[in-house]
């Protein structure tokens, strides 16, 4: 059983930046593809980005490409999401996810979820 704990959320003004972290425990971290999803109030959870086990490949959804950067440190069992040029529409709960199979994560390929961290972007 893998546990994922996110941190780094908070309130930021539009145009600002935040860095989210997700620490994993209970499994072999380097054997999982990792990803970030978000869910805004009244909306479905949506995929943002995923990273391969060796960090060679990343996959971004168009809405965050060029603004968000995902990275991982297998020695620290941690993934990061650097978010720049934040917009009010980025306001959501951000979830860390782990998948045993595949690289481009979907809602259905995720095996483990974190509990989420709230990001609020004010205009």
Q: What is the typical, i.e. mean, pLDDT? A: 96
Spans where pLDDT lies below 50 across 5 or more residues: none
The total of helices stands at: 0
User: What's the order of the H and E elements?
Assistant: EEEEEEEEEEE
Q: Which structural class should the secondary elements be placed in?
A: mainly beta
Properties at a glance:
four-stranded antiparallel β-sheet; mainly beta; 123 residues
Protein model, in words:
The protein is mainly beta. Helices cover 0% and strands 50% of the residues. It is built from no helices and eleven strands. It has strands spanning 3-7, 10-13, 18-25, 33-39, 46-51, 58-60, 68-73, 78-83, 92-99, 112-113, 117-122. β7 (68-73) and β8 form a beta hairpin. It is globular.
Task: Describe how the helices and strands are arranged.
Layout: E1 3-7, E2 10-13, E3 18-25, E4 33-39, E5 46-51, E6 58-60, E7 68-73, E8 78-83, E9 92-99, E10 112-113, E11 117-122
Parallel strand pairs: 2-11
Antiparallel strand pairs: 1-3, 3-8, 4-5, 4-9, 5-6, 7-8, 9-10, 9-11
Quickly describe the structure.
The protein is an all-beta fold and 123 residues long.
